[in-house]
Amino acid sequence: MSTYRSVLLDLDGTLIDSNDAHARAWVDAFRAVGRFVTFGRVRPFIGMGADHLLPAVAGISETSDIGRTINQRRSKLFLERYLPHLRPFPSAGALLLELRARGLELVVATSAKREELSALLGLLGARDLIAGATSSDDVDRSKPDPDIVRAALERADSKATATVLLGDTAYDLAAARACGVDMIAFRCGGSSDASLRGAVEIYDGPHHLLVRLDQSKLAATRHRRAAHVHRR
Description:
Layout: E1 6-9, H1 19-32, H2 39-42, H3 50-58, H4 65-82, H5 92-101, E2 105-109, H6 114-124, E3 132-134, H7 147-156, E4 163-167, H8 170-178, E5 182-186, E6 201-203, H9 206-211, H10 219-231
Parallel strand pairs: 1-2, 1-4, 2-3, 4-5, 5-6
Helix pairs in contact: 1-4
């Protein structure tokens, strides 16, 4: 059984039910500049940052004038129109509390922008549980490139073999595997098991992992701590 020291956390679609909201914000932002893109076209790319999503969806560079305009509009719409209605997935906060109680360090690794990161952590009520965070603003390339996971590893000051990522998309998985980091995957973001193949475990969401924690890859943390306390 694997023993982990640190847990890297994706937020959107993993701990917070926000993937559809992000897709709608992108659709609205495209429409605002006269580009008409359907929800169905955007939704499969949620989990990527703007640097990958804009070219994939519309052939637009993030660094172009129109790319910057769309991205800025999307972030504003998400924060003002959609975020107030979002909720964490069931037991997301309780899962983070339990992971911290077991001695695991928690570091966020998200493709969200920095200003969105703060608001999302507020929804979870988890700011005091988080040891550090990396967002798309901290790196040159977002997921599926490994930059965000690599930066989070540095924040955690943890070896890849002692770290696991909680994520919900194939983009999370690609970024984690490129860094030699295991991933525990959640279905709650809408991904199929086939797209998450390569994850060390797959659960329905935070609640499912929480109730199965003692049978999961994270169980060894509790056993190690218990043995340490016994020796003392």
